[in-house]
Design brief:
With about 150 residues, the protein is of the alpha+beta class. It contains 3 helices and 6 strands; from the N terminus they run E-H-E-H-E-H-E-E-E. It has a domain of about 80 residues: Peptide Methionine Sulfoxide Reductase, Chain A, CATH 3.30.1060.10. The relative contact order is 0.25.
Length: about 150
């Protein structure tokens, strides 16, 4: 299989969706709203490491992770659905948002999970998961701004 993507130009992208998906059910593992924001003292990181379902499961098993959620990052189509992203015409990568308690686990521990389960030398794939996007596997780290 070629590692070329079918997504080459934003002009070819699927049209924007008018509305974002608003989750109504609590997270199946954590029992909290999926839109939960970090509480005081908690940290947040967004990781893109292939299929988000397997990645999310690996991360929610880590002690100190208090919430995970999945979504898309880096594309041009606003509010894409899973079916849209699978066409290869949105430019998105699947990502996992992780909220964690740094007194229990560290960013280093989460990045260890990331690198032990993510092989960027596989190009547009992670094991059996073949990407449909020109967005290369990536890691985005969101750290709180230091307060004086």
């Amino acid at each position: 299989m070629s590692m070329q993507s079918s997504f080459s130009q934003p002009d070819n992208a699927i049209a924007d969706r008018a509305d974002a998906i608003t989750p109504t059910e609590p997270h199946a593992v954590f029992g909290q709203p999926i839109t939960t924001a970090p509480a005081n003292g908690q940290k947040q990181v967004i990781l893109g490491m292939g299929c988000f379902w397997g990645a999310e499961r690996k991360l929610w098993q880590q002690p100190g992770v208090v919430m995970t959620s999945v979504g898309y990052c880096g594309g041009v189509t606003q509010h894409p659905r899973y079916q849209d992203v699978c066409t290869g015409q949105t430019g998105h990568a699947e990502v996992v948002n992780v909220i964690f308690d740094p007194s229990v686990t560290s960013l280093d521990a989460l990045l260890t999970i990331f690198w032990e389960n993510h092989d960027p030398t596989q190009g547009l794939r992670q094991g059996n998961d073949v990407a449909h996007s020109t967005v290369q596997p990536f890691i985005t780290v969101i750290l709180p701004i230091a307060r004086r």
